[in-house]
Write the structure tokens for this entry.
Amino acid sequence: MNESQNPCLVAVLIPCYNEELTIANVVTKFSKVWDGAVVYVYDNNSTDNTREKATKAGAIVRSVPKLGKGNVVRNMFANIEADVYVLVDGDDTYDSSKTTQMIQMCQEGYDLVNGVRKAISSGSYPKGHQFGNSMLSWLVKSGFSSDIQDMLSGLKVMSKRFVKSFPVFSYGFEIETEITIHALELQCLIGEVDVTYSDRPEGSASKLSTFKDGYKIIRSIFNFVRQSRPLLFYSLISLILLVLAIGLGIPIVITYFQIHKVPRLPTAVLSTGLVLLASLSMTAGLIVDAVKQSRIEAKKLLYLSIKK
């Protein structure tokens, strides 16, 4: 494709915190993925020379004082205008060679193109992180009928429509999960491209906590499933309560027909209460499902109102 015949403003967004060893190389590499690409580095209160190194490499540097990747991305999406957005981590682990292809896919109609990490060594992508990513991707696949391979990838290319219709609620590393679920809710065209994933350079440390951030992501998925699949969510709760009620109630009913008495009144009351709660849960699911449909329709209208 000849970019000059089809001008496209590409913004490369790099959220970072204490990445002085890698940021200059990331800025240099990703500034070359598209003719005229503008590189923005949003510094999240770094205590090293990240800002200076990014500025010297040619990036537009801005600051977000409130800690958390979600807070940084929220500011980026709100304040930067472009046709296509490239979101990449500042740790210099992602190969930039496939980014041009990803941008072209967005021009052809994709709203989200995900970089699927292909590690060149076991150290670059630890088994624990791979397992956690696989588990979280499986949860999303189960809840949203998705076939996305690498939901937590830090390299994503997105259309203007997608970015400007995206209400960011996350504060930290859950942002990748939220981006994926937003695309699934809107039934956007999602693509994936394999990208090489390298080790961090010596002296550079990951900001990701496997268990702490993994817990946050699981909690985020739980909340999104509750909001996006409320009928399924509340129906499962209703079914569990109903099974418990039946399990507690059957012996009481059998005893009643045998001796015409209710020997365990508290258990009978509990069983009745569980049936009522099951009914309320199902009713709540029906109500929230109707609200969800209205919310998604509003998001789709906002998405469609934004020009490509």
Observations:
- The longest strand covers residues 112-119.
- Residues 1-5 have pLDDT under 50 and may be disordered.
- The chain has two domains: 3-228, 230-305.
- The beta strands are 10-16, 38-43, 60-63, 84-87, 112-119, 156-159, 190-197.
